[in-house]
Amino acid sequence: MTPRWLAGFVPLAVLGTVAAAQPAPLRFDPGRLGRIDAAMRDYVDRGQIAGAVTLILQHGRVVHQGAWGWADREAGRQMTGDAIFRIASQTKAITSVAVMMLVEEGKIGLGDPVSRWLPTFATTTVATASDTGRVIVPARRRITIRDLLTHTAGISYGTSPVVAPLYQAKGLGPAAGFGWYTADKAEPICETMERLGTLPFVAQPGEAYVYGYNTDILGCVVERASGVPLDRFFETRIFQPLGMTDTHFFLPPDKAGRLAAVYRPGQGGLVRADTGARGQGHYLTGPRISFAGGAGLVSTARDYGRFLQMLLGGGRLGSVRILSPTTVRLMTSNLVGTLFSSDGLGFGLGFQVAERPGAGASPQAVGSFGWGGAYQTNYSVDPANDAVFVLMTQHLPGAELDIRGRFIALAYQALVPAAVGSRP
């Protein structure tokens, strides 16, 4: 029986995207999948996490699902499969898809300068440290949409010492939570990003992989290229068509009781994080004005699984097509050479990509792509095995947890040939 919290996740075979009359056989050994359950319970029992939700799909069908521990330990609210999580940088995948939808419509070009939509980016600068202090020089070329999608624009989160004081003064970097946080700002994201364009960046365009505000800038580009606010674009063009009913920038009041609390390590064990930008955040009580394409969304395992299943389907989920297969292949190909990693991992238009077995010390299959969020959420899409993996938990950025890598490792050890009934 399909659990209530997965109601609406229609199997792809039913949706008609699997050509064969009989659904493809599942290849995950149920006994071995039980090791995920044991590991998650152990994380909770040892006080490393308060709670978690996991979801694995293969051929569009649920292979594994689980909810462990507490959504809010202090309130005595147990974790449930429909719990809502702050997904932080998992927002970037959705914004990247929105950009590519507009590329397909001819409204944006990958080679377009971002200054076409944000004028302050027409003459950007780069800061470097020297023996005499900070040196600021002009950028050697204009930043493009492709630079932003691949994180090769030289734009950081403004927390490094060479630029942090300048960003702090403009309400960014150290003044924005952990650098990327804007949910408490009472101004539209485009105002914030226009101000960012007046600040120096930390590398020349195209010369380094630098993780930062790139996708927040792209969220503003989506707004200006489409003519509608980012939250409305997401809702009407992505969330509603895909049946993502619990994904929002700011949570509706009637869903407040499903938001998982954030925790952090403290004296004597795990403690509830403080309120504010470096804790629980403003997703319930904030100004509800800043729609940050880089880290602003909340979502559920079910909703995010539907979004990933669309990507696994070459841009299609059932009868709904969001992108073309050609676009998805481009987005999930390594476009930066070794700028991202020398360990077999590449980076495409919004996604990390595994290019060889064992890339990044992970068992994921070649061609797998994914990313994660600052609150320890994670996802991976595996075209070779027609599978999707989602992990949701809520812990402050920087927590020393191995849960993301452990989840993927435990998922892959359960992946066996269809004809073999392996014992756990």
What does this molecule look like?
The chain starts with 11 loop residues before the first helix and ends in an 11-residue tail after the last helix. It is built from eleven helices and 16 strands. It has two domains: 4-91 and 231-413, DD-peptidase/beta-lactamase superfamily (Beta-lactamase); 95-99 and 107-228, DD-peptidase/beta-lactamase superfamily (Beta-lactamase), CATH 3.40.710.10. It has an eight-stranded antiparallel sheet with strand order 3-2-1-16-15-14-13-12, sandwiched between helices. A two-stranded antiparallel ribbon has the order 4-9. It has 424 residues and is an alpha+beta fold. The longest helix is centred in the N-terminal third of the chain and has 16 residues, at 30-45. It has helices at 12-15, 30-45, 91-104, 145-149, 164-169, 189-196, 214-226, 230-242, 301-312, 325-331, 403-413, and strands spanning 51-58, 61-72, 77-78, 85-86, 125-130, 133-138, 263-266, 269-272, 298-299, 316-317, 320-321, 345-347, 352-354, 369-372, 378-382, 387-392. The protein is 26% helix and 17% strand. A hairpin with a 2-residue loop joins strand 7 (263-266) and strand 8. The protein is globular and about 60 Å long.
